[in-house]
Amino acid sequence: MMTDHPTPAQLAQKLVELLDVEELDTDLYRGKRGDDGFGRVFGGQVIAQALQAAQRSTDDPKQAHSLHAYFMRPGNEDHPIIYRVVRDFDGKSFSTRRVIATQKGVPILSMTCSLQLPEDGLAHQDAMPDVPPPEDLKSDLEIRLAAVDKMPERFRANFTRPRMVESRPVSPRNWFQPEKQDPWQANWFRVVAPLPDDPALHRAVLSYASDMSLLGTATLPHGVNWMTHKLQSASLDHTVWLHEPFRADEWLLYVCDSPWAGHARGFNRGKIFARDGRLVASCTQEGLIRVRE
Question: Hey, is 222 helix, strand or coil?
């Protein structure tokens, strides 16, 4: 049972339960409702639950290695989400799944997912950038609490609520006086308490967290955010490639950049490194960044 001041273990268990989709019938699942999105479902939650549905639709040892999702409509936290899986292909090495997420009979997300039987092969990767370790950085929550007096009263509870995933930004953003800067940012993140030893769960948690800071990268060169401007933003599509084994309850470094924005859209790229320097995942996302007068 959650309290007003949940412990890290309770927060981690809340995330595990949120991503534990319920099997209603063959290839039909129901995702639990979250409560962290101002009434609108957090996009990372829908991606992670859809991935869990795809992973649970195969009995062999194939592992999800990529997913591509399109957001069609915002989800509503007042209703559960239904996930229907279509088994497009099952081969010796790869399987492909299609997942449609719906609420009240209306689709809100479509996703394709590819799973592969593990095998060895040629290998190389980008180098991990040299950044301060997480122990030398303030948490995002500490930064928010220090600035809470500047936040309008109606937003304070959500702005400072305990998160299931802790983030420690390398270069913290200024929420109230944003300055134009290069479209690059890096954040350490991890679940706030240990998770079960389930690799599929850890892949789902990474997919959940991959939507936490990516879209905002495209706004950095323009010195805008939702606090200071009438900024309408939303994820349009989101892709994750899963490269190497990892644990989402250990520190991961999320490095994001945005090579382009235009026509009310921003394109973003992300690399996720384990603490030992392995590149464990890559992400891309295009999102709506519409500034209204």
Answer: helix
